[in-house]
Amino acid sequence: RFHGFNASDSTGHLRVLHDEIASSDALVIGGDPFDDSHTDTQVDPFRGILPYAANLITLAKYLQKKIILFGIHLGRKPTSPYGIALTKFCLDNATLVTTREDDTKEELVRTYGVAPEKVISSADSGFALLRHAKPSSSQRLAALFSRAALAPKNYIALTVRSYYWFWSDTEAKAYTEKFAAYADRLASVHNRKVLLLPHCAYELDNYWESDINFQREIYEQCKEKKHIVPIDFYLSSEELLHCIEQATCLVSNRRHSGIYASLLGIPFYLFGEWNHVGKVYTSLGITPKDFVDERSLGRLFSDPKMRHLHDALEGWDAKHARANALAQEKKCAYATDSMYALLNT
Questions:
Q1: Using CA atoms, how far apart are residues 162 and 90, in angstroms rounded to an integer?
Q2: Helix axes 169-190 and 211-221, enclosed angle (nearest 10)
Q3: Residue 128 in 3-state DSSP?
Q4: What is the per-residue pLDDT across 113-171, written as a single tens digit (0 to 9) for each?
Q5: What are residue 98's phi and psi, to 5 degrees?
Q6: What is the DSSP string of 259-275?
Q7: 54 Cβ partners below 8 Å, 6+ apart?
């Protein structure tokens, strides 16, 4: 259970949550709150993301606040009867729902009985990042590029996040060795340096949650360290975009890596959860030739000639991908306009 509901917990921050919601116009819960994979209804029915969202929605309902579910995309759908019931409860009590993709709206209406007029089909808000941030280097980034002899348009950006929510500590360590061998081979086959590029740097409740930590462990296992360049500091949005913009291509299991690359006209290869990461391809009207899901990572590691990457990037139409990315950017306004209208009623 989240902090405050266990027997020995202080409840001070629960008062803060109450007071913040009480003084607000609306409660906004974003992203993918309907994951019930960490909820054991027999042992601990209130642990995990989905019960947490349901608790906050209940509190907001008591306080008579508007409730907005923002950028929903069902990346990790509820699977248990309890999870499905909680999801329906959250959707029933939402004042407004916006989605990242069109097919999510269809599923919410069809599977959970949400009224169509309550759902606004929008796009991932990451597509709007260039409205607010532009690629830009910095003194520390320039120093890193100089030390590592990273030439513009002559390195591969690699972002690997740990699947910390279903890997044990032992599994995470084992995967650092496998991804290290993959990074070494990526540099060797393509005759380019590989920049290990972190997105998220927090470690709120798990060491492996931070890309910096996971990628540092990968770097330590690399055999050809002179060809692999880790970043060991938190990047601003501008720095992250700069690192992507200067790469020849990008390889990642992070959804937003592909989104930012598409906006910047950089070819990319994504792998991982299809409902989460793979939906970037469908948003851009691209059919990937060889998508590897997170349960089949052995296919990446057992491809010595990196054929999966060659097939994915051969004939890449950066202009087409970027045009579709900018079209998604315009759709982001559907969500913000709808929220603005709701908050002003």
A1: 29
A2: 60
A3: helix
A4: 999 999 999 999 999 999 999 999 999 999 999 999 999 999 999 999 999 888 999 99
A5: -115, 150
A6: HHHHHHT--EEE-S-II
A7: 86, 89, 90
Nearest to residue 334, comparing CAs of 122, 130, 104? 122
Nearest to 212 by CA among 224, 222, 199, 221: 199
Specify the 3-state DSSP secondary structure of 290. Answer: coil
What is the C-alpha to C-alpha distance for residues 265 and 268, in angstroms, rounded to an integer?
9
Walk across the sheet containing 66-72 and list its strands.
Answer: 26-30, 66-72, 96-99, 119-121
Q: What is d(CA 75, CA 50) in angstroms, rounded to the nearest whole number?
A: 13
**Residue with tokens 């969202």, as numbered in its chain:** 53
Question: What type of residue is 248?
Answer: T
- Output the 3-class SS for 21-75: HHCCCEEEEECCCCCCCCCECCCECCCCHHHHHHHHHHHHHHCCCEEEEEEECCC
CA distance 321 to 247: 16
Instruction: Classify strands 66-72 and 155-159 as parallel, antiparallel or unpaired.
Output: unpaired
Do residues 71 and 125 touch, judged by C-beta distance below 8 A? yes
Beta bridge partners of 99: 72, 121
Residues 284/123, Cβ–Cβ less than 8 Å: no
pLDDT in tens, 29-62: 998 899 888 777 777 778 888 999 999 999 999 9
Q: Tokens for 150?
A: 């990273």
Q: Compute the chain's Rg from CA coordinates.
A: 21
pTM of the shown model: 0.91
CA atoms within 13 A on the CB side of 263: 24
